Amino acid sequence: MKKIILFFMLASVFFNFLPNFIYAEEKINNDLLKVINECLPPNSELISPEEPKSTKPYQLYDLNQDGREDVIINFVIKAEEQPNPSQYGVIVLRKENERWKKVWESQTQGVGLAYSGTADLTGDGINEYLFGVTIGASAGNTLEVFRWNNHSFQRIAEIPNHMMELITDKKTGIAVWQRYIADAYFVNVLKWNGVRLARNEELFSSYYPTIEKFYQDKIAKLDAWFYWYTLADAQIKANLFEKARNSIQKGTELAKESSLPDEVESFKRLLDELEEKQKS
């Protein structure tokens, strides 16, 4: 009986406290949004990135590890005449002496905000900031990687891509997809080597199944030479030489059937690359 009474007493306290907690949280969010809107450039508006999914126009992260969260804000200044490129930007707010202060801002021209998020790419326990803007359908995206240094962001990498994926399984890296033809892509996986983001064979091999699945699905719908070509390229990078040899053979046959002598030569060069790597 005492346990039942205690349960109802605790439940009563919880449900009485809950509305106050929700109200306090809403007030904090509203106060922060007011500060954010006051810091935006003229004629701009908040914008969420395409990736990561469900990311808000603003994110909280302690950039300088002082125990207080900073605010990373994304905005767009739309071109007066569409579909001309717009200005996509990022602002960092920091609270100093109980007042929010703009400590950094950057803008890039483009047609979309492809990515905005943080990840520890350098392995020092502190997240870098990743800012990706779509330049155009053909040109693809530009991903800038910034590291907080003293009182400002320092750009440590700029990566052109058509698609990218953050790899966070045990080791952090970036899978970079660059269009070859149609929806066929060359893929590289980058990892911080202490100085810069560089190609990493070990991380590429662990990511390879994702690439293979992508091309298996494509080939099941359309058995095209360019899928086999880019798949073979990935297989060589993953040291899967027999698989690569088979892909080159299948792709060469398709190129010959379509009377594409230049593409046949491309497959020959890819085969030379395979054999050279296999010897090393």
Question: Can you walk me through this structure?
Answer:
InterPro entries: Integrin_alpha_N (IPR028994). This protein is α+β, with helices and mostly antiparallel strands and 280 residues long. Helix content is 39%, strand content 36%. It is built from five helices and 13 strands. It has helices at residues 2-39, 201-221, 225-237, 241-257, 261-279, and strands spanning 45-46, 58-61, 70-77, 86-96, 99-110, 112-119, 128-136, 140-149, 152-161, 163-167, 173-181, 184-192, 197-199. The strands form three sheets. Strands 1, 2, 3, 4 and 5 form a five-stranded antiparallel sheet that branches. The chain has a four-stranded antiparallel sheet with strand order 6-7-8-9, with no helix packed on it.
Q: What is this structure, in a nutshell?
A:
With 280 residues, the protein is an alpha+beta fold. It is built from five helices and 13 strands.
